[in-house]
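Work Package 4 report. The design task specified in the project plan requires that, given a folded chain encoded as structure tokens, an amino acid be chosen for each position. We show below one input record used in the internal validation round.
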């Protein structure tokens, strides 16, 4: 059975998680974003922003989690599985932070490929900072650019999701599978 692995990505504050939640409510299998979990675990250990303090360690934890999600998606009984961010997001954020990373990061992107990538663009009207999202809107736009470049570097065609209500965005994704 062929499994379709569908990534929903975009810079911080673009509405990814809200769209993923709606897709989940509509009966789709959705894997959650794991960076908040990694950030919260680090905060419990007294590290306020692990990505800012040790970008490579943070990214290693994300890479491990995203590879694990990818493998779980491969073995899931559902035909289509949505993922809130993909493996190339890890290198995009490191590129944004101007950090070097070991070759196995690149190999992970090359060896674990997705079937469809939906990119949510920066949208200032809905952008909100919080305890886990430290970037301002201008930084979110730069991250978006790095995400787009990373996915294209690995040969993906990105489908940009238009702004609008969460339901309209989920409708767009479902219609463009």
């Amino acid at each position: 059975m062929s499994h379709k692995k569908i990534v929903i990505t975009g810079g911080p504050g673009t509405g990814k998680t809200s769209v993923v939640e709606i897709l989940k409510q509509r009966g789709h299998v959705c894997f959650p974003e794991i960076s908040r979990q990694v950030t919260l675990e680090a905060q419990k250990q007294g590290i306020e922003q692990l990505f800012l303090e040790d970008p490579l360690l943070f990214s290693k934890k994300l890479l491990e989690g995203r590879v694990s999600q990818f493998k779980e998606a491969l073995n899931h009984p559902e035909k289509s599985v949505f993922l809130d961010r993909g493996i190339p997001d890890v290198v995009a954020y490191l590129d944004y932070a101007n950090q070097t990373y070991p070759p196995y990061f690149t190999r992970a992107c090359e060896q674990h490929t997705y079937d469809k990538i939906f990119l949510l663009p920066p949208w200032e009207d809905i952008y909100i900072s919080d305890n886990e999202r430290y970037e301002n809107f201008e930084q979110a736009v730069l991250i978006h650019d790095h995400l787009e470049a990373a996915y294209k570097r690995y040969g993906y065609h990105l489908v940009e999701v238009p702004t609008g209500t969460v339901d309209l965005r989920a409708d767009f994704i479902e219609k463009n599978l």
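The chain has a mean pLDDT of 90. Validation will be extended to a larger panel in the next phase.
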